[in-house]
Amino acid sequence: MKTSLVTGATGQDGSYLIEKLLSEGRRVCAMTRRSSTFNMARLSGLKEGVQNNGAELIYCQGDLTDQSSLEEILGKYEPDEVYNLAAQSDVHASFGVPEFTADVDALGTLRLLEGIRRLGLEKTTRFYQASTSELFGAVREKPQRETTPFAPRSPYAVAKLYAYWTTVNYREGYGIFACNGILFNHESPRRGKNFVTRKITYGAARIRVGLQDVLRLGNIDSRRDWGHAEDYVEGMFLMLQHETPDDYVLATGEQHSVREFLEIVFSRLDYELVWRGSGVEEKGIDRKSGKTLVEIDERFFRPNEVNYLCGDSSKARSVLKWTPKHSFASLVEDMVRHDLEVAAFEKKNGMVVEV
Q1: pLDDT bucket at 35, cuts 50 / 70 / 90
Q2: Residue 174 designated active-site
Q3: Is 156 annotated as catalytic?
Q4: Measured on CA atoms in the order 213, 260, 139, 104, is the torsion positive or negative?
Q5: Which tens digit of pLDDT belongs to each residue from 297-307?
Q6: Which residue out of 132, 166, 197, 252 is catalytically annotated?
Q7: Active-site residue among 81, 122, 134, 263?
Q8: C-alpha atoms less than 13 angstroms from C-alpha of 318 in its C-beta half-sphere
Q9: Contact 248, 319 (CB under 8 A)
Q10: Taking Cα atoms as reference points, which of 113, 122, 108, 130 lies closest to residue 33?
Q11: Among 91, 114, 253, 321, which residue has the fewest nearby CB atoms (within 10 Å)?
Q12: Of the listed 83, 128, 156, 232, which one is catalytic?
C-alpha cells in the first residue's frame, strides 16, 4: 500500500485530496498544526484508522516552520508521495504578515525538500508543491501558461515563487520527483470565508435570510479563472502518477470578474443587482426593493492589485489527460446552495458554522 503525506490537511484542498487518496486505497498521513487541531470541520466525516476499502487514515502533527517535526514525520512514515498544500494562503493578509508568509510558504517548502534529501528519500518519495497563478501577477502574456514570465505582486506570491524555484532546483539538483502545480483560483463550498468567492456566497445567503444587511468588498473589477477544487486535486494526483516530473498549469481557460460573480450569486437568491455611483462610492442595489446589498470598502484593496488572470492548461490536458468536470455555473450553484443551507441553520440555531 502506498503512503501519501498531505500537509495543510484541514484546508479546502487538503480535505478533497485526502478523500481522493483514500478512494485510491492509499495510507494517508494527514498533517495538521497543533494550533489548527480545533479546525477539523472539513475532515469531520473522515475517521482515523482503516477505511472500508482497506485504505488507512492517520493524523499526525507537524509544522512547516519546524524542521524537526517534518523530519520526524518523513522518517517515521517514509511516504511514497508528499503533497505540500500547507501555506499562509490569504494574499491580502500576506501584506500584513510578510515575514510569517515567507517562513511558511517559502522556507516551509525548502524544509520539506531538504528533509526528503537528508533522510535519503530522494529516489523513493515523489513531491507535489502547491504553486499558484498569483506568480504571474502583473501579467506579461494572456492567457498564462507554463512558459509565461512570472511577475509576483504580493508577499504571498513572492514566497510562492521561492518555493516554485526551490522545487525545480531539488528536482534538477538531487533527482527528486518533484512537481509544481500552478493552480488558478479553485473554489468550493469548503473554501475559507476570507476568500472572495466564499465571502460573497456566504454573505449573500446571510442577507437573504436576514442575518446580514450588506456585503463589503474591495476591487470588484478584478478578473479571475475560477474552477472547482475537486477537479484541481485530481490534477495534483495525476502529476505524481505520471512517469516523469514536470510543472503544470491547471485552469479552466474561462475568465469572470468579481462583479459578474456577485451578479450571478445574487440572482440565484432572487435579487437583481444594479450599480450606482463610481469608485469607492459605488453600490450594488437590488432593483426591486431599492436596498443596498453591496458596498465598496477601501480596507479590502491590496497595495498591489492583480487585475487579470486566465490560464492555459493545454499541457496538463494533453500530457496528464486532465479535464475539469465542473462548469463555472455549477460551481456557483454548488456554493450558493450550500451557503443558503448554512445561513438558514445559523438563523434557526443562533450559532455560526465554522466552514
Answers
A1: low
A2: no
A3: yes
A4: positive
A5: 999 998 988 88
A6: 132
A7: 134
A8: 6
A9: yes
A10: 108
A11: 321
A12: 156
